[in-house]
Amino acid sequence: MSAVRSNVDTTSTSYQQYREAMLERIDDLAEQHAKALAGGGEKYVTRHHGRGKLTARERIELLLDPDTPFLELGALAGWGTDFTVGGSIVTGIGVVEGVECMIIANDPTVKGGASNPVTVKKGFRAAQIAHENRLPTINLVESGGADLPTQKDIFIPGGASFKNITQASADRRPTVALVFGNSTAGGAYIPGMSDYVVMVDRGAKVFLGGPPLVKMATGEESDDESLGGARMHAKTSGLADYLAVDEHDAIRLGRQIIRRLNWHKKGPAAKVDYPEPLLDEEELLGIMPDDLKIPFDPREVISRITDGSEFDEFKPLYGSSLVTGFAQIHGYPIGILANAQGILFSQEAQKAAQFIQLANQSNTPLLFLHNTTGYMVGAEYEQGGIIKHGAQMINAVSNSTVPHISIVMGASYGAGHYGMSGRAYDPRFMFSWVGAKSAVMGPAQLAGVMEIVARQSAESKGQVFDAEGFAGIKDYVEQQIEEQSLAYFTSGMGYDDGVIDPRDTRTILGICLSAIHTAPVEGAQGYGVFRL
User: Whole-model pTM?
Assistant: First the structure.
């Protein structure tokens, strides 16, 4: 393999300008993440600790193997909505007794851990990742059930969360429930459907209906412990497999369960000895222009995330605005597609389709590095077959069966987002660099198109177009699209798995690739009709 030679001048004015702009964005990202880390706020965290309980993240930290990373997913879920950032649930991949697991923890400091629409959507995404990557799941349970004011949005779809647990068990992906507090109503089915259940004595309360509901429904007088206490479930109902004396003991028992699973990865193992990149990841801060209209060479990114900064480029002289090639990241083989100049032409689309098929033939996962404004438009390109060629690329992406990882570095607009394995194409993992944008098209272009259409409409009716009056509408639309295309907004909608610092790219990719290889990696056995 050949190492990429860098042309980045870290002393240049533009590099320093880009770096400072990126650092400002990263500082803002830390502030946004702090909203999720705060949970329900200092008041409720203090009250929770006062009851002798651990927070969701404290439980996760004790559950994980010492000095191992936790890849939190969907940390900004709910950003820009009326719901608490994070969706009252923490999800992510961590290592427990040497086994990579999907960990899902209710945050009881946010409305008692009640589930709202963001919670449900985030939980579904965690279940999807666990399914696709064959990961055992550990639920850290303490939830009062549904957030009743939003029940109309969660009751019907929310039932699938229980289906997911049972299907995981049928798929021989172990499910473990550690119950620390309330697990009521529908939430009672989380331990009820899990393979292994641990309950904390004098802490866990698991029942379909609490004392007030039982009183209303049957007239029966009851108390929490006799109705759904941990000791009752361990000695009488049999729902609890293990009775923990306290939260620390529950976590110990959870680790013990994972240790005895006899769990093995089914994908190919990574190479043990691999070199770190020759080029400094820190320099990623100054590579991305602060104006997304300015192109940059994605090889400068690739060389700072691949082992030994090596990259074997495929078709380097053809379709030059899309860079394709093979490399290795943390000992795992990877095929990389990275947008260079933003626009995808016919050559780029055809090149991508061929490369994706080659990766499938060699069972090689694919990494898509987005910075595209979409496929080229105009009479010359339409006549040249851009629709056919774009369809070839999307066909290849749609029917590819090797795992995909997508990272939006800069812009990801239009059908180019689809061709680069955007959210709708189910990449195994998808992240956005802070400052990245995703939309139908750029804000200025979209507002400009609306102005042209409005002007033509007025002229067709014999009316005078009010350019001055439309200017205010145009500015409003442009501002709205700008806000809705920001990485925070799209991440808040659940359209990616997190907004990240560019310097963390290689580490995140390593965790994702390791998780991916828990399952077999198999390429497509065939494709449908390619319109040639």
Answer: 0.93
